[in-house]
Write a structure and sequence with these properties.
The structure holds 2 protein chains of 2 kinds. Chain A is of the alpha+beta class. Chain A has 2 helices and 5 strands. Classes of the chains: A alpha+beta, B alpha/beta.
C-alpha cells in the first residue's frame, strides 16, 4: 500500500508502506517529520492535514490527541497527529499534508 | 553552497540521525560515515525505562530509522566500534583496530553514560545495574520478577520511570534520593510533590535526604543509608544518579571542554572542523552566560539541525527552549524551558486529580512551564514563550481563562 504525502516544502511523495505500520514512523523514515517524542502524543511535530475524503476513515481521536490539537495554532478540522494513526489496507492511497512544526 | 566531504559522525544516537537527515535535506551528497560503540543502529532510548522494560518487543521496533534508511542515504556504518583518538592536524579519526577515517568535518555526538555511586558501590555486579543501553534494559527486565526487592538510587526522570515500570511489574520498589525531593534538579517543588504522591500511592517507598553509604552481601545486598544508618535489603540495586558526557576523546584532542564539549550557536567546537551535538555538547543558554548541557531528545534534534545547517552553509534554524517528557504510571510530565532561580512560579490547576501546571515567568513573561497531565497547557506554554509578551499572573493561574485567549 502507499500514502501520498505533501511535505512542508510542497513536494509530493508517494510512500510505500505496510498495513500495520504507524503513519508517524513511515513519515519519519523519509525525514518528513521530526517525531521528537517518538510517538507519545507529546511534541506535535507529526501533525498532518488529512484529505477530507480520507478523514472519516481514520480511528477516532483520543482525548489526549484532541487536547494537544486544541492548543495548536496551525491546527484545523483536518488535523491529526500521525503517531496516533496505524495504517490499514483501507487507507491505501490516503492523501495528506505535513503541517509546519510549531 | 555544498559542504566538504567526507563528514564523519562519532556516536550513533538521536542527534546523529537528525544530522544525517538534515544534511541530506540541505543537499549534501558527499560521503557520510557513522561510528557507534554499540552494535545496533541508533535506537529510541526513552522507551527503555518504560514499556521496553516490561514487554519483550523486537529490538527492531526501537530503531529510529530502519537499516534501509541508512543504505538509501549512503551512510557508511561502523557499528560496535570505538574511537581511540582524533588527529586534528591530519583530520583523521582513529578507530579501534588501528583503522583511520579521514574527515573534512567531524561531528561528535557521543552522548553520555550513567554516573556511578561515589561510595563503594561502583563495582558492577549482577545485582547492581545502570540504565542507559538496550542491553541494560534487557538485563533489568530479566531480573525484575514479581516480589523482588528493588532499590533505586536516584529520583530523577529515568529513576522514576524505572520505578513506575517495576512497580507495574510487581516488584517491591524503594527509591533513595539524596535531595529533599525527587526531580530536584529537573522540576519545581510542587511538581516534585505531586509526583511523590503518585509514586507513594502506587506503593513505592520514597526515602529522601539519604544515599547509600555501604553495600554488603551478595544475594541479596544489604544497603546502609548514610544518615539514618537504616539497613535496606535489595535483590536488585539500580543506580540512576545522572549522566556524564562522553567527552574524553574531545578533551584528549585538546578541544575546549567543561562538563561537555563547548560549542557555539552553530554547534561548532573550538576547532572549526569539529562540531558537537546532543547530550555531549554544552553552550551558553539563550539568556545566560553560564554553559548549559541539556539532556533531552528535543535538544539533540535541534542541535542536529543546527549543525547540519552550519555545515551546509544554510540559514541557522531557530533555537527554541528545550522540551522534556516523562511518563510515569498514567502521569504524563511535559516540560519546556529551563527556568532561572529568579523566575516566579505560577501554578494552574482545575481540580482534576493529578493534573497540575507550573508556569515560570521572568519580568512578567513566560519562560518555562512544567505540566503534569496537562498537554493542552504545555502546548499553550510553548506558544506563550515564543510570543514573549507580558502576561498577568492571575490570568495564568485562573483555569476559567483559556490560555489560547492570552
Amino acid at each position: 500500500m502507499k500514502v501520498l504525502v505533501q511535505s512542508r516544502t510542497g513536494e509530493m511523495h508517494a510512500l510505500q508502506c505496510d498495513p500495520g505500520a504507524g503513519l508517524m514512523k513511515v513519515l519519519a523514515e523519509s525525514d518528513l517529520v521530526e517525531a521528537t517524542c517518538g510517538g507519545e502524543c507529546s511534541c506535535a511535530t507529526c501533525q498532518v492535514y488529512v484529505d477530507p475524503e480520507w478523514l472519516p476513515m481514520l480511528p477516532v481521536q483520543s482525548a489526549l490527541e484532541r487536547e494537544v490539537l486544541d492548543e495548536l495554532v496551525m491546527a484545523n478540522e483536518h488535523s491529526r497527529l500521525a503517531c496516533q494513526i496505524v495504517l490499514t489496507n483501507e487507507l491505501d492511497g490516503m492523501k495528506l499534508e505535513v503541517a509546519r512544526a510549531e | 553552497m555544498n559542504a566538504a566531504s567526507p563528514i564523519v559522525i562519532v556516536g550513533a544516537g538521536q542527534a546523529a540521525v537528525q544530522l544525517i537527515g538534515s544534511l541530506r535535506a540541505y543537499g549534501y551528497t558527499g560521503s557520510l560515515a557513522l561510528i557507534g560503540d554499540e552494535p545496533t543502529l541508533p535506537y529510541h532510548r526513552p522507551p527503555l525505562s518504560k514499556q521496553y522494560l516490561l514487554e519483550s518487543t523486537p529490538r527492531v521496533d526501537l530503531l529510529i530509522r530502519t537499516q534501509d534508511y541508512y543504505d538509501r542515504n549512503g551512510v557508511d556504518q561502523h557499528l560496535g566500534r570505538s574511537v581511540t583518538g582524533i588527529d586534528r592536524e591530519r583530520r583523521r579519526l582513529r578507530l579501534s583496530g588501528d583503522e583511520e577515517l579521514p574527515y573534512a568535518t567531524l561531528v561528535i555526538a557521543t552522548g553520555g553514560r550513567p554516573r556511578t555511586l561515589a561510595s563503594g558501590a561502583t563495582q558492577s555486579g549482577r545485582a547492581i545495574q545502570m540504565l542507559r543501553t538496550i542491553e541494560d534494559a534487557e538485563r533489568i527486565r530479566a531480573e525484575a520478577k514479581p516480589g523482588r526487592r528493588v532499590v533505586l538510587v536516584g529520583g530523577g526522570y529515568v529513576g522514576l520511570e524505572v520505578a513506575a515500570s517495576l512497580v507495574s511489574a510487581g516488584c517491591d520498589v524503594t527509591i533513595v534520593e539524596s535531595q529533599s525531593r525527587v526531580l530536584a534538579r529537573a522540576a519545581s517543588r510542587c511538581i516534585s510533590e505531586l509526583m511523590m504522591r503518585i509514586h507513594a500511592r502506587h506503593g513505592a517507598r520514597i526515602i529522601t535526604g539519604e544515599t547509600v553509604a555501604d553495600i554488603a552481601g551478595a544475594d541479596p545486598l544489604t544497603l546502609t543509608l548514610t544518615v539514618s544508618r537504616e539497613q535496606v535489603i535489595a535483590d536488585l540495586l539500580l543506580v540512576g544518579v545522572g549522566m556524564q558526557p562522553n567527552s574524553e576523546i574531545a578533551e584528549a584532542a585538546g578541544l575546549q571542554c567543561d562538563n561537555g564539549v563547548i560549542v557555539d550557536a552553530e554547534c561548532k567546537s573550538s576547532d572549526p572542523a569539529i562540531y558537537a551535538i546532543g547530550d555531549v555538547a554544552t553552550r551558553p543558554a539563550a539568556k545566560a552566560l553560564r554553559n548549559q548541557r541539556i539532556e533531552s531528545v528535543d535538544n539533540a534534534v535541534q542541535m542536529g539541525k543546527q549543525a547540519a545547517a552550519s555545515i551546509s552553509g544554510a540559514p541557522r534554524p531557530p533555537r527554541t527552549p528545550p522540551l522534556f517528557w516523562s511518563d510515569q504510571y498514567a502521569a504524563k510530565l511535559q516540560m519546556v524551558g529551563v527556568p532561572s532561580d529568579r523566575a516566579q512560579c505560577i501554578t494552574r490547576a482545575d481540580g482534576t486529580p493529578d493534573k497540575l501546571s507550573c508556569f515560570f515567568t521572568e519580568e512578567g513573561r513566560v519562560v518555562a512551564a512544567q505540566c503534569v497531565n496537562a498537554a493542552g497547557d504545555f502546548m499553550a506554554a510553548k506558544r506563550l514563550i515564543a510570543a514573549n509578551r507580558t502576561i498577568k499572573p492571575a490570568d495564568l493561574s485562573n483555569p476559567n481563562i483559556k490560555l489560547r485567549d492570552l
